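User: Some background: our group keeps a shared notebook of sequences we're curious about, and every so often someone picks one and asks for a predicted structure to add to the entry. Today it's my turn. The entry only has the sequence so far, pasted here. Could you supply the structure so I can complete it?
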Amino acid sequence: MGYSVSRSRAIMIGLFVAATLVVGGFAVVGISGRQFRWQPTFRIRADFPHIGGIAVGDRVRIQGIDAGVVESIIPPTEPGKLVGVQLRIDAKLRGLVRADAIASIQPTGIVGAKVVEIAPQRSDTPLLPDGGTLLAQSPRELGDLLADAKATLERVDAVATSAERGINEVIQVVGAIREGKGSLGKFVQDDEAYRALLMLSGRGNKTLTELEENLTALKHTWPLSSYFNDRSFFDREKVLFRPGANREGRNVSLARLFEPGRSVLTAAGRVELDSIAGWFQRALTNKSEIVIAVHSPGSEDAELALMLTQEQANAIRKYLIERHKVDSIGWFGSRKVAAVGFGTQPPRFGSNIKDSEAAGLAEIFLFTPQL
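Assistant: Of course. Here's the predicted structure to add to the notebook entry:
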């Protein structure tokens, strides 16, 4: 007896078979795409001392991008020779594989599959030709990493043991001192020696104070005083401390006086100082003193900033003296005009200069004693 199929059922069966073929075709295309069989590719090679378990079909990456597959493994012809790994790479990534690119075998996790990673180097290196050989880096095995970690831990343990031994020795020494053992211990326990040390320290401080006072007086004694006047200041830390004098000042950004990193006044800088000198001529008295303070708090090198700000302060002082005679008091008198570079120290009395300009600032003060 024959078996007949209705027309509608036959159509359904046919559609099912067609759908199965379409899905299978997409799967084949996907698998082939994963294996880089249909798109344009090129072949290169890398030779390794050992390949750490890499097999045909394993992935190849360039800067982490899925770029190709391992096409074949070429065994060495003799013991100790290199193992060749033939790679098939997507042609779209051709420009990334140059003659100095480095191939290495990397794990995709702590354990499990591995990939061949290609790391490009310089962009101006010629392209590696089709069939060329990459520079190769030996893979790091888990055992090697564990051995390195073990060696590191052993070194850390040795350091810790040494530190513990040293601490114990220090504890013993401190204990001996507390008990009065040894020369230092006897000294610490001897009240008379302690009092003698305090007396000696006091005498030393007194001697240093007297020496400092004598040197200060000597600085103001002719002919040494002329040398220190030429240097234009006696004490950087105290030159702006005048509790018995009235202080007036003018501020100007260093950018308006000098070119960056220079101590030569610009034409605009001279005009700026001419304006300040006009104010001086109206405010000066015979007892007034002038202090020029230059600050560069934004500088990175403190030592160089101190040298530069001192040179800039000297340049301002020289211009005001030579051009406007601010140091002159009649025919026979002279006024002290101090020039002090403070390096990276910020201005002591604040400033009306904008924050963007305050990286370099010249302050010109007029101190007039108050009776």
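Suggested note for the entry: The longest helix spans residues 142-178. The first strand starts at residue 41 and ends at 48.
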